[in-house]
Write a structure and sequence with these properties.
The structure is a homodimer.
Chain A: H1 3-14, E1 19-29, E2 36-44, E3 49-55, E4 60-65, E5 71-74, E6 76-81, H2 90-97, E7 102-107, H3 110-116, H4 118-128, E8 134-139, H5 157-160, E9 169-172, H6 178-182, H7 186-194, E10 199-200, H8 210-218, E11 223-224, H9 230-238, E12 242-246, H10 254-257, E13 269-272, H11 278-283, H12 287-296, H13 301-315, E14 336-337, E15 340-343, E16 351-356, E17 359-360, H14 363-367, E18 399-404, E19 411-416, E20 434-440, E21 450-456, E22 464-467, E23 476-480, H15 483-495, E24 499-504, E25 507-513, H16 526-540, H17 550-555, E26 566-568, E27 571-574, E28 585-589
Parallel strand pairs in A: 1-4, 1-5, 6-7, 7-8, 8-9, 9-10, 11-12, 12-13, 18-21
Antiparallel strand pairs in A: 1-2, 2-3, 3-14, 5-15, 15-16, 16-17, 18-19, 20-21, 20-23, 22-23, 22-24, 24-25, 26-27, 27-28
């Protein structure tokens, strides 16, 4: 701040001069005291900071009088989000979520960095610098997430280090490799030591023991958003691991965790969305939806608004002045960013308007930004896949397979018996909900790896689905009832330069193009992507799966850092911490030693 | 942490190997959840960190079994202390307070830096590096505290800047100059801008308006320990200014503020001692005494222990990993320093043992430290003062004087009528509790300034008292019934190279030598200094003051940044914010333009 700006701040704060902008007669929710007070809020426009509040009759050069009709709460903070799951670019993401009150988000570009490496950090930083909301970027520490898959890049501590001091970078994101920590893996410990004085986010899903929690926490890992069980979450919390309550598209935890929300624990909680698709954002909302869900479950509203704002800001070192020069936030109080959400009702969290740095969020404001050109075109670096490479042969008895678990991304390990044809080829069994599955390496960094297996529980009766979103390496993942439809689906993904495809009886029924790293649309309107997603789900309904979105489910089946049976381009993997298996192991190695004929 | 150390931490945390030291079967107070749980606490000795807890039956190479008899709470944090008020050096201070559970203290070397300038920072840093407790040092921003006094040094932003990145330095201490902020004083705004991304402590005593609070908070000032009125403190709190509850020797605020202590507000509170003399530390305790006082007033014990530990650590950015590499603290949880206080009763806070970084605090441990040689000898840089320089002449009607207010350091401005002798000399009037007072510049940086006035309410019937501790510039301050005894007292302070002196009828009744900058004893046992202080108070009782410690009261009479009438070596000052006077003004300029004859 220049001396003149500081003088201006002092003058407006002390009331020597009128404030630039005053929101008058708001029902201000004070998340310090827990009280709600009718008050004005004075904002210095040059800094975007609140300079004066908790009093009335403040003079303003510009005034908005709420006449006691609306509540004012601090802007919401998403503690952990993968923007890629919204299938839009960061600037389009902000258009979708700012209206829902999310004024700051801590994102982990884990998906795109698995495809593009450090270029993904540069792209997200460039985007963050041209956004209205504060997009804080975590450096993805697990690229690749395991040693059992081919990602588009490999990022070591030396690759992350150049970015750590950037003001848009908040620290190290989701540190998933628990097994590697316990095994003293050199590259893993290297990162923990290099970034020992930084924020490091955690990942401790159900099944992670208290011993592993102790170890991860002792390595400086401070939070976890993988909380599907309240007792498990409480074990983390009491060890000082901050618990982020998530409402994503696939993982919906708020109802299960609502009983943790109390005043005493409130500083150690946060809200997040993790993975949320554009349809859910458009239809249900974002952090506002998490807030509504918790309050509907009986949580105290003011406590929930504290968790959505100050608790999150405080966790990330943004509640006060800080070495990175981030502006403090999380309170409606002086020296806090004027990130303010106006609500008609606290319980319903029905948003009337959102102010970011004292400016009303509007379509016109979005028009002012420099549009950042997406990167990551041409990320599908493989030729057409012939049908024969998807076929499987062998003993049809005790064939290892993946078993789906309803409403979860964890899976089971199954051994099944399959039909077989006269050539000894193992066949799918849609009648018994057994389908083919395959993962095709698409970064051009292996010798054409294609792994094949079977999946039970996806529920598709006909055709095939294929996606270039396959966590975490984002190879092409395909599942289906017939080899022919699978082949068509995979090649349609390749032809589209990435996306999601639905095929039935040799016809492409639906296609969502995701040309940005094979993960995101380059359309500039989130509603268009939401509509594309709705069309895709319409198309997939022809395959008669009981799941609303089997394509997203399919995309989690290569996620071998989540238990139990998964499939990567290396082959089928297992990871069962409940049985003492601390990291994924390869069940059947299907790697291609040399380029296929 | 080296890779080997990290591996060791992981192994002990995960239970792969026995922990170095385990405290077994403690009633662990969890200030995250608010619950008390019978649990073991495993400590890795190499790092001094807790690695594993909230479970039982942990294997340890060394074990202490509490058999469920004792509570374990996180080490206490003093959020704001002037060690100089304990009249001992930092290493002796820690011997006094560590036994009372204070494992971390945020100190402001404001007194010694007013005498010695930046050398004081070097001395405190050197001391901190050779202590067991964590002494965190704030850079004193107000040296001198006002423009109306001669201090031993003048420290600008350039003088503070070289120290700000030192790991023992937590930020900028007590920013007192509210008037200078409101007046846009250049040197003051310069400091606020240079340290805009740093912690800056506040000072907003009763009388500071909400407008001034807004201005100070908007400048990044984040806390206040000057809370003598609960409504005034709540005005700060709701603006996001953290409120530190103080129990010093002169200022005792805990009873008045106890009703603020509730679960919701607990993250925004802290405990402090500010100025506490060695007798009170020895007899009543330190932060443990603040805890006891709050609980006795009805505050919830677990909430009080949270405020004493995590809330304080969190405020100062020490609750998690941080850019300065400070070890996290404030919880009994993994990745927290093993700063643990064992108590027989939560309510009584009766300390059984204190562990710092997992080591039991003991006399033997203190012996291991390198003794840091005190500095600041020879800080009284003036010759003997002749009696005539203390005499006052003039109109005996409406003479401006200082009025004392019981139990407070604020004063009133009085106009009194005095006796006068045949030479026109104004005389003291001990019958009506009116005494002479004078401040003698002792740094050798003026032309022999001596300011004289009268004080009402000190209650001394005979003799005189003189001190080289005179906040904040620490010139020699003397008050008494006769000019002869005052002259003897002043010259005895000079002859002693600093200290506190009691004189009656031409005889020195008591003397406490403070040769370290004229502020602190160089004795190496706090109990000896406490005994010296008790002897001094015994001596002063002969002067028949109703105050237990009129010498300390006298030392606050030059403190012109506190309202209202005060006296510095420049003359009598006034500062009455309730009347809109934002900073001290000089009532009668008594500066000596040239060296006296």
């Amino acid at each position: 701040m220049s001396t003149t700006a500081l003088q201006d701040t002092i003058n407006q704060a002390a009331g020597f001069t009128a404030a630039d902008f005053v929101i008058k007669n708001a029902k201000v929710v004070n998340v310090v005291s827990g009280k709600i007070e009718l008050s004005d809020i004075a904002i210095c426009k040059a800094s975007g900071m609140i300079v004066r509040t908790h009093e009335r009759h403040i003079d303003g050069r510009e005034v908005l009088d709420l006449e006691g009709e609306l509540f004012a709460v601090p802007g919401f903070i998403d503690c952990h989000v993968h923007i890629e799951s919204a299938m839009v670019t960061p600037q389009v993401f902000e258009e979708a979520v700012l209206m829902h009150g999310t004024t700051t988000a801590f994102c982990d570009p884990h998906e795109i960095s698995n495809v593009l490496g450090a270029d993904a950090f540069r792209y997200f930083i460039d985007s963050a610098e041209n956004m209205i909301m504060d997009l804080m970027i975590g450096l993805s520490p697990c690229v690749p997430a395991s040693g059992l898959e081919t990602a588009g890049a490999t990022l070591g501590a030396d690759d992350l280090a150049p970015f750590i001091h950037h003001p848009c970078v908040y620290g190290v994101a989701e540190f998933m490799s628990i097994g590697a920590v316990l095994d003293h893996d050199k590259g893993t410990l290297d990162k923990l030591e290099r970034f020992a004085n930084c924020q490091i986010d955690g990942h401790m899903p159900f099944g992670v023991s208290t011993a592993m929690m102790n170890a991860m926490k002792s390595c400086g890992i401070r939070n976890c958003h993988e909380n599907t069980d309240i007792d498990h979450a409480c074990e983390k919390l009491k060890r000082g691991i901050h618990v982020f309550i998530r409402e994503g598209t696939v993982c919906k935890d708020a109802k299960r965790l609502a009983a943790m929300v109390n005043t005493f624990q409130s500083p150690f909680l946060g809200l997040c969305t993790d993975d949320r698709n554009p349809v859910d954002i458009a239809q249900e909302g974002h952090i506002d939806h998490v807030i509504r869900t918790l309050i509907a479950e009986g949580a105290d509203p003011v406590t929930v608004y504290r968790i959505a704002s100050w608790s999150a800001a405080n966790h990330f070192g943004m509640a006060g002045r800080n070495p990175k020069g981030w502006k403090p936030r999380g309170l409606i109080a002086p020296d806090n960013l004027a990130d303010i959400v106006l609500l008609k009702s606290l319980e319903d969290c029905d948003i009337h308007a959102v102010y970011k740095k004292g400016e009303r969020v509007s379509a016109a404001a979005f028009e002012q930004r420099r549009r950042v050109r997406p990167i990551g075109y041409g990320s599908i670096k493989i030729p057409t896949v012939p049908a024969h490479r998807l076929r499987q042969f062998g003993d049809p008895v005790n064939v290892p397979a993946i078993g789906l678990v309803p409403d979860q991304v964890v899976t089971t390990y199954e051994e099944i018996t399959l039909p077989v044809n006269q050539h000894g080829e193992l066949l799918s069994d849609p009648e018994n909900d057994v389908l083919y599955i395959a993962v095709i390496e698409r970064h051009g960094r292996s010798h054409g790896n294609i792994a094949r297996s079977f999946v039970k529980g996806l529920g598709i009766k006909h055709g095939a689905i294929a996606v270039s979103v396959g966590h975490d390496s984002h190879n092409i993942t395909v599942a289906g009832a017939t080899i022919e439809d699978m082949t068509l689906a995979v090649n349609e993904v390749i032809r589209s330069d990435g996306g999601k495809v639905v095929v039935k009886n040799g016809r492409v029924l639906g296609r969502l193009a995701l040309p940005v790293a094979g993960l995101m649309s380059d359309k500039t309107d989130v509603l268009e992507t939401a509509r594309d997603q709705i069309d895709l789900l319409d198309a997939v309904s022809a395959l008669e799966s009981p799941w609303q979105d089997p394509l997203t489910l399919l995309g989690f089946l290569p996620l071998c850092v989540i238990p139990d049976a998964k499939i990567t381009d290396f082959g089928l993997t297992r990871f069962n911490p409940a049985a003492g298996i601390m990291r994924p192991t390869l069940v059947n190695d299907q790697r291609t030693g040399s380029p296929p004929a």
